[in-house]
Amino acid sequence: MSNLEVQQLTDKHVMNTYARFPMALVRGEGARVWDADGKGYLDFVAGIAVNSLGHCHPAVAKAVSEQVRSLIHVSNLYHIEPQARLAKALCDHSFADRVFFCNSGAEANEAAIKLARRYGSEQAGGRSEVITALNSFHGRTLATLTATGQEKIRLGYDPLPSGFRYVPFNDLDAAEDAVDERTAAILVEPIQGEGGVVVPDESYIRGLRQLCDDKGLLLIFDEVQVGMGRTGRLFGYEHFGVEPDVMTLAKALGGGLPLGAMLAREEVAKSFPPGSHASTFGGNPVVCSAGLAVMKTILEAGLVEHCEAMGAELRQGLEALAQRFGFIREVRGKGLLLGMEMDRECGPMVQECMNEGLLVVLAGANVLRMVPPLTIEKADVDEALEILGRVLERVQGS
Ligand SMILES: *Cc1c(COP(=O)(O)O)cnc(C)c1O
C-alpha cells in the first residue's frame, strides 16, 4: 500500500483520536525509518521515547522471536520465567523490591494510584488523596487523566473520580500547602515530558521527599517517559539524589512492545495482596523477554553513558541554534530528552522537518521535542542539527 492508500483506509475506519501526519511508516532500522512510498527519515521521535535501542534492535528481535516459538502467553495464575527475571533485573538496578507488570504507562500509573489508596486506607484515619502537578501527564484512563494536570485532557469526561488535587510544578511551598490529613501520596514526573520538557530544581524534588517523609506520604515518580536511561541516568530520580517509594515505567521498557511496570518498596508493595489488582497480559512472556533484552543491552552496551554523551552533543548544537535564532527562547532537558521552547507555535516546523527527512515531535504547542534512540551516533546528531538549522532559517526568513 502507498502512503495515500493507508491514509485513506485509516481515515475511513480508525477512530479519529489522532491528528495524523499524511504518511505511514513501514520499516525501521536503528535511528532510521521509511514510509510506504520509500522516503527515509532520521527518527528523533522514536515512538515518543519508546524505541530507545533504535528500530528492530537485533537483541530485541532475537529475544522476541525465540520466545514466540516456545511460549507466547500463559495466565499469571502460573509463574512466568521472563517476568520473574525482568522483575529481578529492575529491582537490582533501582530502589524497588517488587514489580507489578501491566501493558502501558496509564495502567502503570493506575496501579500506582490504586496501591497508594490501599496503602493510605491502612494508615491511621485513612488517607486517599493524591496530589499531582499542573501540566503533568499521567495517561488517558479515567483515573490517570484525572491525575493529569491539564484541563484539555479532562474535558468532556465528567464525572471524574474524586481524590485528586493539583499544584504548580517546581513549587515546594504549594505542595506543602496542599497536604492535609487526607493526603496519601504525591505523584510527579521527575522531569515533565509532555508538559514541555520541564526540569525542576533539585531542591524541589528533594523537598518533596522530605515532605513525604515528614507527613508519612508516598512519593510516586512517573518515569514512564524519563526512565530506562533516557535522561543520561538509568532512572530520572538519580539526578536528584533521592528515591521514590513507588515508580512507574512503560514506553522504553519493552523495546517497542507494550510493557508497563509499577515498582515499589516492600513495605508499600505489601498493600497489594492476592486478588487486589491484576492484568491478563501484564508480564506476558513475550514482552518480558523483550524487556530483558532491553535491560541487558542498556547495561552491557553502556547506553546510559552513551546517551549522556550524545545528549550533550545535541544540546550544544541546539544551544548554538538558540544563539542564532532569536525566536528560540530556551533549550531544556536532560540526556536525550531535549526541548526547544519558541516564541511561537512549532507545529509547522515539525512538518518542515519531516519534509526534510527528520522526525521531531511537539511537547505543547511552543516546544519542539527530541527523543531519539539512545543508540544514535555523532553523525546522526550532526545531520539532525543541519536539517533543523535549515528549517529554522526558513522560519526566520518568513
Ligand atoms: C506517555 C506517558 C504516559 C502514558 O503512557 P501510555 O503508555 O500512553 O498509557 C504516562 N506518563 C508519562 C510521563 C508519559 O510520558
Description of the structure:
A hairpin with a 2-residue loop joins strand 11 and strand 12. Helix content is 40%, strand content 17%. The chain contains 14 helices and 15 strands. The radius of gyration is 21 Å and the shape is globular. It is α/β, with parallel strands linked by helices and 398 residues long. The strands form three sheets. Strands 4-10-9-8-7-5-6 form a seven-stranded mixed β-sheet, with helices on both faces. The structure holds pyridoxal-5'-phosphate (PLP). The site of pyridoxal-5'-phosphate has 15 residues, from helix 5. Pyridoxal-5'-phosphate binds next to helix 5.
Would you count the extended β strands for me? 15
C-alpha end-to-end distance: 36 Å
What is the count of helical runs?
14
Oligomeric status of the shown chains?
A: single chain
- Give me the strand/helix succession: HEEEHHHEHEHHEHEHEEEHHHEEHEEEH
